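We read letters as residues; the fold follows as tokens. A sample entry reads:
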Amino acid sequence: MPLRVRSLLVLLALAAFALPRAAIAGKAFVFETDYSTGSFSAVNTTTHAPSCDVASVHSDARLRWYGGRVYVVNRFGADNIQVIDPATYATLLQFSVGNGANPYDIAFASPTKAYVTRYERTDLWIVNPSTGAHTGTISLAAFADADGIPEMDHLMMVGPLLFVSLQRVNRNAGFIPTDTSLVAVIDTRTDTVVDCDAATAGVQAIVLQLTNPVTAFQFDRSTSRLLLGCVGFYGALDGGIERIDPVVLASAGVVAREDSLGGDVADIVWRDTAKSYAIVSDASYKTLLITWSASTGRKLATVYAPGGFTLGDAELSGNELWVCDGSFASPGIRVFSSVTD
């Protein structure tokens, strides 16, 4: 079975991290899987020349970047963080985040302090990413639904605050959405949970208007708002894209709904208010790359529709949109002009 491209991390200006002159050109790092094995590849963002299968990773992974290194979040069944040198592709460090924890994301406060979401647990871990040492935990158990697990997913740092998406799905009923999903906020200076609603007793998280957030956070610099894609129930047009105000710590409303976007939201890429991108899954579970407008909350056009459930991730690199196409016959990276689409 061919490796199917699932996740992409586009990086520019690697020279800023004092790599050798040969590595000055930007690189995109790619995770591929056939769902039993995983592989790690790189692509030169100027020439588009690939370096295929340069490292081995787990079959279920996400890629993150910090301080001149690639961090591979090896998820279900591996439960570790793998640190890769972007110049040599050597694994520099690999450390566990707890057996059966199922890590989903890692975010960095400093070179010696990072946070890891653990989907099967109630505790957010604090680790030293330079050594792999577990240095602390932050309990999010108070935000769990009836199954006892909050299902923590993506992370985003905004200044000293860490935003944590909590799906709160019912794992005892096929991981379907419950009444509400949340975003917990951590003050990384004290490693305490921030109360986002002083009018309500106890420590409260941000309550989302939509349920089941599944995408990475995006940041709109023009309005200083976060955006988060929520799928709701798969196959039902009940989700969309929601704004979050990271200053007042509250939902800023739904900017686009799935019934206007044409399917379940699987990924979002923020460009600007006039035109941004999303990967959606239609009623036949075929994934589409679309453009949408935050001004109108509606789909603008379909950019790419390869057929099948094949599009996994997209990232913006300057005026290029890089898209992971995991089609069985011809998996690869499709690069589109973000000016002309």
About this structure: Confidence is low (pLDDT under 50) at residues 11-24. Helices lie at 258-261. The chain is about 0% helix and 50% strand. The CA atoms of residues 221 and 318 lie 15 Å apart.
